[in-house]
């Protein structure tokens, strides 16, 4: 068994090697378990470390867990497909240029860039830390035939790199932590790692993943954090709510309209996850019922100093009352109508669909259309409030079916209309 400490430049982050193998009792709450493969074994190894899990879900509904392991000497990025029962295929070491022979790769992030997948990783080379961005030539998650390194950006002093999908404007950010600061710096990895904004959290952190949830008058950011408490790394959380509303006062026939923006920061009580072990790199699979994936040294009696991958199956992130109030705030589906358009009206290549939702703004709504009621395609927002656009590329009569789905998974009834499309 080997023991050594991997330092990321000047940061406080460290991991010490060795690994899992035996099923352990649950010392930190019901439903906590190491990750299991379809063959009945464990995703983690007996003598090495598995850290920095990242769950990626494809547009066609498949889920893949990415993580870093030093099972072949250096830290490399591995991928394992998750099956419907929550088990995993055997992990697969990603080829070059994601991994290298002599350097360490950790903190994998995978971004769907519409026509290609991009991998963002942290690479440690000769005590230097770089954010490396790899572009592929397709959205096939196992296709690296034309993968190339598109950017390498120095990023010294880091303790962790998390992910933030900013769904309001459709941007992908990486969040950089240093361990000794409460600042969480969001960078755009596709523009030379340019600094976008800095969030001052309530406590210093070693690693943070960020999640955006809608609310009727704004949105809330949730932060799943790796913090130091009582000499141990622990899973922690906090939130910041951004609320906007308009106040109208009429005084002596003069109307005053005031826009009010409120920001409210809160520590989220996360006693549920406190343990006597080091629990690091928490990531929340919101699309997978808010399950938390993390690395922990809780098998230290068998393999001291070892980090393995675990999942909370019952004590999920949304079982925290304040998170549950946000995550399950809306159970009313949106509604679809066609406005003034009536059956057999003429349209000219396109027409608008009106979608209303009492809770979610347009940003958090998706809409789909079909001309046969079977094969649906995603339709785009028109740019006007509450309106989506259906494009028809052939002339003739069509029975167009449309439905919508909000961020909470509430699905509207499918509405349909007969139209005659005229191609100019």
> Segments where pLDDT lies below 50 for 5+ residues?
1-30, 251-258
CATH architecture of the largest domain: 5 Propeller
What is the CATH class name of the largest domain?
Mainly Beta
Give the number of domains.
2
- Major sheet characteristics: 8 strands, mixed
Q: Output the CATH homologous superfamily of the largest domain.
A: Glycosyl hydrolase domain, family 43
Rg over CA atoms: 24 Å
Q: What is the CATH T-level topology of the largest domain?
A: Tachylectin-2, Chain A
N- to C-terminal distance: 74 Å
Offer a quick outline of the entry.
This protein is an all-beta fold and 424 residues long.
Q: How does this structure look, described?
A:
Helix content is 2%, strand content 50%. It has 424 residues and is mainly beta. It has 2 domains: 32-237 and 268-327, Glycosyl hydrolase domain, family 43 (Tachylectin-2, Chain A, 5 Propeller); 335-421, Immunoglobulin-like (Sandwich). It has an 8-stranded mixed sheet, with no helix packed on it. A 4-stranded antiparallel sheet has the order 1-20-19-18, with no helix packed on it. A hairpin with a 5-residue loop joins strand 18 (279-285) and strand 19 (291-296). It is globular, with a radius of gyration of 24 Å. 38% of the residues are buried. Mean pLDDT is 86; it is low at 1-30 and 251-258.
List the helices and strands and how they pair.
Blueprint: E1 32-34, E2 50-57, E3 63-72, E4 74-82, E5 92-93, E6 104-112, E7 117-125, E8 128-135, E9 148-154, E10 160-166, E11 171-177, E12 183-188, E13 194-200, E14 207-215, E15 218-229, E16 232-251, E17 254-268, E18 279-285, E19 291-296, E20 308-312, H1 321-327, E21 335-337, E22 345-347, E23 350-356, E24 365-370, E25 377-381, E26 387-391, E27 396-406, E28 415-421
